[in-house]
Amino acid sequence: MDTMIIGIAGGTGSGKTTLTKRLQDAFGDNVSVVYHDNYYKKHVGMTYEERAALNYDHPDSFDTALLVDDLKKLAAGQAIRCPLYDYTIHNRSEKTAEVRPTKVVIVEGILIFADNALRDLMDIKIFVDTDADVRILRRILRDVKERGRSLDSVISQYLTTVKPMHEQFVQPSRQYADIVVLEGGHNLVALDMIIQRVRSHIEGPGPV
Questions:
Q1: Where are the alpha helices (DSSP H) in 147-176?
Q2: Could you tell me the pLDDT band of residue 1, with boundaries at 50, 70 and 90?
Q3: How far apart are CA 23 and CA 37, in angstroms?
Q4: How does DSSP assign 171-192, residue by residue?
Q5: CB pairs under 8 A, 24+ apart, for 160-163?
Q6: Phi and psi at residue 49, in whole multiples of 5°?
Q7: Are the C-beta atoms of residues 93 and 85 closer than 8 Å to each other?
Q8: Rounded to whole angstroms, how far apart are CA atoms 177 and 159?
Q9: Phi–psi pair at 81, nearest 5 degrees
Q10: Other C-beta atoms within 10 Å of 35: how many?
Q11: 73-93: pLDDT as tens digits
């Protein structure tokens, strides 16, 4: 199988997941998705309070080597057991999910362009760029509604780790992008261009 690996990076709340879902809707079973967030390192023997205080926006918080190995397996036509992360407990779940090889594999995460070995596996690198005020508002809504966080904890985490790590690692990784998309999946012009590129890969060259 000739697998195309697409990386979708960008700051928290930038619209990465919306863009990813648009591509899934367009191509269905031809697309599988692997989220870098599921590869957060497992923390054994730590209390909830200790885990909550960790910096989850630094590259070292991820088991990126495992993600690299899993992507190589998918590209070779092998299914993987992807770890799952539970945001409500700030730790990796005991459960895993099977991801099957497909013609297109999307890797999504804030820091996927910060690792050279991971970048080298990607055929297309897309960075979603969105205004910081919009991103923090989206993060507040998401974390409070979907991840069981308090407003105070979300704001504290944003100011102490998310914002400084974005400035130190996420935004500088924009330089590695092949395509910079403003507003993610809401940018219909950029979305259409990406869909056309992916469709040409899935359908392959026409008859000679």
A1: 151-157, 163-165
A2: low
A3: 19
A4: GGGGGG-SEEEETGGG-HHHHH
A5: 161/55, 161/56, 161/57, 161/58, 162/12, 162/57, 163/132
A6: -65, -40
A7: yes
A8: 26
A9: -105, 100
A10: 19
A11: 999 999 999 999 998 898 999
For 100, the token pair is 């099957």
Q: What's the rounded Cα separation, in Å, for the pair 197 and 134? A: 28
Burial group, residue 156, by CB count within 10 angstroms (0-12, 13-18, 19+): middle
Hunting for tokens 């979603």 — which residue is that?
Answer: 128
Dihedral sign, Cα of residue 168, residue 172, residue 176, residue 177: positive
Structure tokens at 198: 């992916």
**pTM of the prediction?**
0.89
Rounded Cα distance between 104 and 27, Å, is 9
